[in-house]
Amino acid sequence: MLTAFLVFFPLAAALLLHFAKGSAARILALGASLIELVAAALAAFTFVRTGSIAGVDLNWIPSAGITFHLGIDGLSLCLVLLTTFLVPIILLTAFRHEEYENPGAFYALVLFMQTGLLGVFTALDAFVFYFFWEVALIPIYFLAGAWSRSDRRIQITFKFFLYTIIGSLFMLAGFVYLYLQTGPAAGSLAAHSSDIQAFYNLKLSASEQSWLFWLIFAAFAVKMPIFPFHTWQPDTYTESPTPATMLLSGIMLKMGIYGCLRWLLPVVPLGVSQWQQLVMVLAIIGIIYGAVIAIRQRDMKRLIAYSSLSHVGLMIAGVFSLQAIGLQGAVVQMLAHGVNVVGMFLVADAIERRTGSRSLPDLGGLTRRTPLLSVCFLVMLLSTVALPLTGGFVGEFLLLAGVYQFNMWAGALAGLTIIFSAVYLLRMYQRAMLGPDSAFSDTITDLSGAELAMFAPLIVLVFWLGLFPGTFLHLSEPAISSILTLVGR
Amino acid sequence: MLPIVLLSVFGILNLFLGFLRSNRVLLPLVLVVLALIFGVNLLDWNHAGSLPGFLESPYISQMLTVDNFSVAFSGIVLLTALVLLPFSRSYVVAGEPNLAEYYSLLLFSLVGAIMMVSYNHLIMLFVGIEILSISMYCLAGSDKRNVRSNEAALKYFLQGAFATGILLFGIALLYGATGTFQVAELATAVATPTNQTLLPMLYVGVLMMVIGIGFKVSAAPFHFWTPDVYEGTPTFFTAFMSTVVKTAGFAAFLKLLVVALPAASPVWLPTIQAMCVLTLLLGNVGATVQTSAKRMLAYSSVSHAGYLLLGLVAGHGQLSGPAAQGIFFYSLAYSIATVAAFGVLKLVSDQRQREDYVGLGGLARTNPLLAFVLTVAMLSLGGIPLTGGFFGKFFIFTAVAGQGHIGLVVFAVLMSMVGIYYYLRPVIAMYMRPAEPGAEAPIVVDGFQSATLVLLALLTLVLGILPGFLSGLL
């Protein structure tokens, strides 16, 4: 019941938003996202106390053996918590943009997106997973395109949409093939079943798994994105309105990594071991490529976009190390990266709203009049750089340990991500906040109380993840070990 | 049977109602009668015979048979006509003098369509196709002061008459080889040929029938008439043409190939596969280069014929199971989305006087409802989840993949990726491009049409969210 509520409540709220105007729409949207957060917290308490949460398992298309199967285990729970935690902050960011036309529709699409995301993170049937996977794409396409002020928005969002949907159609083809290999589920009249368990039980030859791996991985590779499927990402992140960028980078990207953990590694383990090294190489290329390009960027959002590309590379490398510590690192880093990247975009947004520019050469010497903003910026930045005590450190440390166990040289190369990110992020901080005064140095205003309230939970979580990562590691540990058991079978 | 009788009788009565010269009465009357006939049609579900004990299927010396298959497909064509009719409001408002004739022709064409989905005898198939086609030839040219409409009618008629000739020739050859017109007898006669020397005649007959029906459903390489005819025909009738004709045509095709001629599959299966590949390729690639939304929908309807041909590939021996199910669901989702798309397009083109993507600019601002409905329709035609079109494709693709035709499915999936490219273009125009200068005024939509559009969007979403209740029907 709680699972169904979590997935569908945002959708119901989004529909209701159609009837709300002005500040009522804001209150309704924010209220709904907070209720959702409370529900997620409740789910977490239930999970900690009893070890499980009742899922949903309904007949969806009985004649085809497709069930509407949702469930939350420790891994799902981490991502559900991340999503429900970030959506209120993303909504609050959207509230700051008075210039958005038809804001009610904007908030409704954010909530609609939340339903899609939560559906992806809880689906336990291949076609339900695919369904929500695409459901999440439709709102973000409109959010990124219709509210963007960029001249190139049409081409950029078109490219984004085509890339992601083509990737996911490959995944669908892979799922259909797997589905046709399954036998009937117990007590079902249909000849096949698309339940995750039926997929896990399949015994496919190594050659089948080899190409199935690429069909399924195509969708995840585009979504994360991994080099060389990333070309849609920097433009989309840069030119989308900031709340949409936050959804893309903070949550939607994790769909790809979650998909790898849940639907790729355990379903085609032989394919994974066959292509493991290639993916690792691509991931490490992505790490270095993203970082090198980030160093040269002037636009703050674009810089963060490339930085995200680099950090995602490390997460992929950790996942494909197939070490328990690497996978656990990926879970923590998914949370930490979600918080960090949303925090970084929040900073970029705060500066852009004040100065009308996010270009580093225009900025400089802002810190004098903005002590609070500087502190928030620095915390988010240091967590992204993976300084000890912050969430980024725990995540990246575990990931690097996993990659190192896989291969020492891979570990060494992947470790460059920390050095590089220190270079480009500190450079960004220095150019924007320190350095010679710019036209805005004397006029810029500091964070208001309301803005500080948006940063506060992010900062709390950064330190929580850094000091007590066990909270989340305990949640995901059983799920990760069962995934690894399936991989090792 | 009862729907055919009622439609014919009311069609003739309706001609006389034209003398009243009161268009305002006509539309509601036709709507109510169609709704009634739709209900009467559903009465036949699971028991063959409209009035038990009085009229039992099969009818007319076993020439027509009513079963769940025919009821389901008749249901689609009647529903399509029902939801399309509100968009003829502009004729009512404009005081079109021939409206009663138009409605009668539509009703007669529905008779043809229902005969096509319930034939049990090849002559009935032929008669059904002709009743449907002749009505369509007239309606294509109904805008008689417009050169394009005249061109459309002439092109459609000349090519259509030729195709009908080929179809009839095929039927004759088939009769010559087997000595029967009956579907069930054909199946046994083809499976156990008594005279081997007649086999070439039989196979040529099968191919000619495939060509004849292929023309009607605009399957490549017999699709060349489609873009010109669709573009020239008044939008209201284009919508009818691209939904009812296609649905009925594919139901007839399915029955012919998998029930009457399963034993001839070595001949028709490769043909259908080749046509399918060609249709998907030409339809989808053709649609990408169009600048007119109406022409794009014409090519898109060609491409949908390709997906439905794909469904035929999976059929074997019976009018139930995955293939029939897939074609049923696909036709339904396609018809609803197409009516919605043409409905919006008609409203826009009537009031902004242009049918290209530019004419859709800024629609999201001036008419959010129209933009939303067209978006849902486009997503459904593109096969994106949350809409019925996704499950239509899904059912067909899984049915075909289940028969082992993996290569074909992969090709169809690649083609549907191309489809997403052109279905997104109207959406981009509506949501991300401004209106043309001078076209910023909202489009006037009366409440009835708005309600119909909302209903169509909802139906599409319901098919996409809860496909279960319709997926096990056949």
From TrEMBL, chain A:
Major subcellular site: membrane
Source species, domain of life: Bacteria
InterPro entries linked to this entry: NADH_Q_OxRdtase_chainM/4 (IPR010227), NADH_UbQ_OxRdtase (IPR003918), ND/Mrp_TM (IPR001750)
Pfam families on file: Proton_antipo_M (PF00361)
Enzyme nomenclature, EC number: 1.6.5.-
A GO molecular-function annotation: NADH dehydrogenase (ubiquinone) activity
Residue spans crossing the bilayer: 66-92, 104-124, 130-148, 160-180, 211-232, 244-265, 277-296, 303-325, 331-351, 372-394, 406-426, 447-467
Protein topology in the membrane: Multi-pass membrane protein
Localisation: Endomembrane system; Membrane
Residue ranges the record marks as coiled coil: none
Stated family: Belongs to the complex I subunit 4 family.
Protein name as annotated: NADH-quinone oxidoreductase subunit M
Species whose genome carries this gene: Hymenobacter ginkgonis
Automatic annotation (TrEMBL), chain B:
Catalytic activity: a quinone + NADH + 5 H(+)(in) = a quinol + NAD(+) + 4 H(+)(out)
Entry's transmembrane regions: 6-22, 29-48, 68-87, 99-117, 123-141, 153-177, 197-215, 236-261, 267-289, 296-315, 327-348, 369-392, 404-424, 453-473
Domain NADH:quinone oxidoreductase/Mrp antiporter transmembrane span(s) in chain numbering: 120-417
Keyword Translocase attached: yes
Localization terms from the record: Cell membrane; Endomembrane system; Membrane
Molecular function terms from GO: NADH dehydrogenase (quinone) (non-electrogenic) activity; NADH dehydrogenase (ubiquinone) activity; quinone binding
Protein name according to UniProt: NADH-quinone oxidoreductase subunit N
Species this chain originates from: Hymenobacter ginkgonis
Name of the gene this protein is made from: nuoN
